[in-house]
Amino acid sequence: MNEKILVKKAIKGDDEAFLTLMHSYEEALYRTAFSYLKNEGDALEAIQEVTYRAYRSMKTVKEPTYFKTWLIRIMMNYCQDVIKKSKREVLEERILSIQGITEDYTFLEVEEALLKLSDYERELLHLKYFEDVKIKDIAVMWNTPEGTIKTRLHKALRALRAGFEEKGEVKRV
Length: 173
Prior knowledge:
By secondary structure, the protein is mainly α. The chain contains ten helices and no strands. It is globular. It starts with a helix and ends in a 6-residue tail after the last helix.
């Protein structure tokens, strides 16, 4: 069934349509939660909480086309709240070994560089490059002109590159 039709049914209170939508976006929600929370248990808990929040406020969806973006935004907001409460920003070695990540720590350097960016810049990069949300959709979601989003995205990428150059990680050829 067409996603737009499912969203419209869910807005009208169709629980089966809502569950179908949530199952179809479960992986994207998990990736988003895990990228913020760095912990499988917390990511799964985040999916549960976001499912509840989305269900509770489903009737507020104005444009069915942007349902996924709306859902990801709820997840990002929830994860930021969790991080603020726990003030957890650094991965522990123990968690890495439990997950079987032992040799390649390149992602830690990326995480460190991302942490130097503002929340807005991190969200923008996450939406564009991790969730593959189109600039047009981000502009609608944030009620900002597309040109402004493109400029801010370019600025965020420049700041990220500067973070790597600062550490000597990026070498110009």
